[in-house]
Batch of 4 targets.
Target 1
Amino acid sequence: MFNLTYEFKLKPTKNQVAIFEEWLEQCRKVYNYALCERKDWFKSRSCQINACSLRSEYIIPADTKRPTYASQCRGLTVARANIPALKAVQVHVLQQTLKRLEKAFVSMWENGHGFPRFKKVGAMRSFVFPQLGKSPIQGNAVKLPKIGLVKFNQSRPIPEGATIKQARVVKRASGWYVMLTLQWDLDVPQPAPHGEAIGIDVGISHFVAVSNGRLFPNPKPFRKLESKLKLLQKRVAKKRLGSNNRKKAQAKVSRLHERIANIRKNYHWELAHNLCDWAGMIFAESLNLKALAKGMLGKHCLDAGWGQFLQILEQCCFKRGVFFLKTDARKTSQICPNCLTETGKKLLSQRIHSCDHCGYTTDRDVAAAQVVCIRGLAAVGHTVKMLSEGKFTGIPATEESSLL
């Protein structure tokens, strides 16, 4: 199976917007109730039976089983029969909300994520239709179960032969969007190693350094708009809680956050396509992004969005038939790519790589990208020395490339 997600902006009527808002609120309540049920069960078993705190722990019978997705779906069926507001929402939408909570607990157990949190008013911003009827796309409108036809701006054509498996309605500061998941009954093979190879090294001073000597600047969208964001947040803090003026001020903050995210994502896509134009193999570092985000440069790391960029680069490589691989990131900036000896650079302020052993000199980030390229080639079975064969060629490392 091969899946793609297409995103379009909806043009709902006022009645449809009211339905969307109501459904989001009901999904939030179902999510919070199910989370409370699970949390109470865990708390009732968090201490010894002879030392249980009656003030902060709930007494639940010992034979009560742990709440699961299946048991909570059965409870949802009973609740929908007694609560009209829940019955007005399509049942599969509420079940997907429970599945979302189940995934949050699985991520906590398997990936070390935190305990799921309750969602306050307005925090739930999407709901999913896991099944759509036949021919859900009718002209420039999508037919959603229990809602009907909702117009949308079809910015690009939907490919023929694809089956629309599900639809996710998303609320953003700029409006409502629908994300259609398209599925084809075919298997697309992963691109094989071929063609020219490049390695990349992500950073803060330069967003990406390429092994051929090119440097791409860091757009820093958050840093450039931080003062404006700070001003808008101050205006929100001065407004009375619950007032319409406060809601309007919060909407401006949300739109600015969305603008920052769009600038960053657009730059990532443009850069990914630019890199795919140059090579048949792209190698990148496998970074511990969680640890980097918690360091003293965490604000700059999060502003750069390396995790999103590497995901986009991998998607772009798959789409364009370019081989992509992540390599070991240890000591990439400490090793000389020419003689493979450790140089022992200790300060981040030391931005020039100069090897005392062989005399090779270049930008520090470019040298790290060349080491990444060598490691990637070794991982796919190539053991050639790139510099000795003149593979690392390009413009001087001090010149920055442009995406224009």
Target 2
Amino acid sequence: MLTLYGISNCDTVRKAKKWLDAHQVDYRFHDFRKDGLTAADIESWQSQLGLEKLINKRGTTWRQLSNAEREMAENPNSQATELLLQYPALIKRPLLEGSLPEGSSICEVGFNETLYNDLINGVTHE
């Protein structure tokens, strides 16, 4: 089953949810703020995606960080994990993770209709 992670009032998350619903994809929604996150979640995403892809540097949360916090966020260590736990809005969203019906696993950030369509239909991307 797929899990869509994000923040419920995020426009991009809403687009992804609408697309998944329209294509009758079985998923559950996990709100970063309401449902929380664990260090294990973040470390798993960090190992699969890398910090550069995982961190949202375009949002207001990033702009409000101190220079020291930004440095922490860019270094793959436990401090980056702690910072993402403290500021979950730093994580790019939506984050789609889970297993597809044919058995493959996915972990992707952002919403791109073509990519979602390819993922759901078993097309791989490098």
Target 3
Amino acid sequence: MPSTTAPPSARRAIPPVPVLSLAAFMGGRRAALPSLLDGADVRLVTSGRIAIGLALRALGVGAGDVVLVPAYHSPSMVPPAHWCGADVAFYRILPDTAPDLADIQAHLAKGRVKAILATHFFGIPHDLAPLRALCDRHGVGLIEDCAHAFFGARDGAAVGSVGDYAIGSTMKFFPIYEGGCLVSHRHRLDVTLHGAGAGFEMKAALNALEAAFAYGRLPVLRLLLALPLRLKSALWNARKSRAANGTAAASPAPALAPSSSDSSFEFDARWTDKRSSWLSRAVLRCVSPARIVARRRRNYQELQRALDGAPGCRPLIARLPDGACPWMFPLLVDRPQPVFEALQRAGVPMTRFGASLWPGVDASVCANSVDLGRRLIAFPCHQALDDAERAWLHAQVRQALDACAAVPA
């Protein structure tokens, strides 16, 4: 197959996630869609998975209980249930990622189910009213997983308002290094949080700033902070060098920030009583929600138009619903591996959500989940992408699809 790798001059470094910029603070506070935080009791924690663990604990989940999790999932959704001492069972999803209520009913008939996680995948809100009614009949807690859906509504119900508790991942929607939230419209949150220390606060701030600098944002601030950042890097490299040479203390120092910020699937219980950093909380208060919603919707629809008629693919969602603020643009690809490899060579940021499922979750558990994990490639549509970055992304994805379709399978 001919290479679709872009020549070096055509390669671009575009941010895979939102990054800080001056524009992020412009655009107004009033968004077209409700926020996960609207009208709820809120605790800002360091990650969505920590929020899951706290929600399960609030529901009284413990040893001998079962937590139902969608068979299409991030592996990070499972360890919080194990932290509570519970077992996990996986329920089927429909081709559009909605919960399969018949399969959930079959699990409930077996007993022991204490809580169900229901996910609004890729920021497309599901109608959870039937699942809410099912949970109420069986006395089961419902946790609304809004990690992909910080803004949105379905049939008049705001995301996060249907579950007993809801969780969010603020770092998927805001230009911050760490952050999640636990919210509830139905219960008071009996959760007390503490600061994680000066090292955490500094790392959260510097990592958010360095991410912005790496993609050409905030150039004046980058110039002003050049010397302190070089000093920080030198100190950090010296610390790592001492550890590698065995001169560090026998017991490694606690991590300055949760591993969830670095794409791990671990659940570190040391962060269950820690609040999100000052910078992350300040960014949530100050950036423009209206801009986030409007630009994500625009960027999603622009990419969909750019790929209209492209061979060997189709959007997971044929039309972006009016009540959706997307996390990413999910595309189903007939020949995903060669397309993925071509885009990877070109440096295109993308996610294959569900490509790694929990051990034992296979087609016999849920064929739809396995098919989505194999075929789906998701592309960024966040608010920080500028015009040139979006145009390059569109061209690279279309080029890879056209090139792979031209080669016989």
Target 4
Amino acid sequence: MEIIDNLKWRYAVKQFDSTKKVDNDKLMTLVEAFNLTATSYGLQPVKLMVVKDQALKSMMVEKSYGQKQVEQASHVLVFCTRKIGRDEIVTYFNTVKDVRGTA
């Protein structure tokens, strides 16, 4: 239950200390946790981008409704999704059927 309790804890950060950086091991743990997240039928319609470049983070402030935290954070995790159409779903399930030899 400790994990659930930890997930229930929330805190909205108003400002980051830009002199501190997220430890690479912790960052890689977050990336791995994201990659292991189950998605609908295994279609994986999501990608994770880790933004570290200061110039790019500065440009992102405007697109994030002026939230300065985007610029101050050592890393910004961007969750990207894509729409999946019927044809892609049919192709995916046909491939699974062929690989597994199921009807």
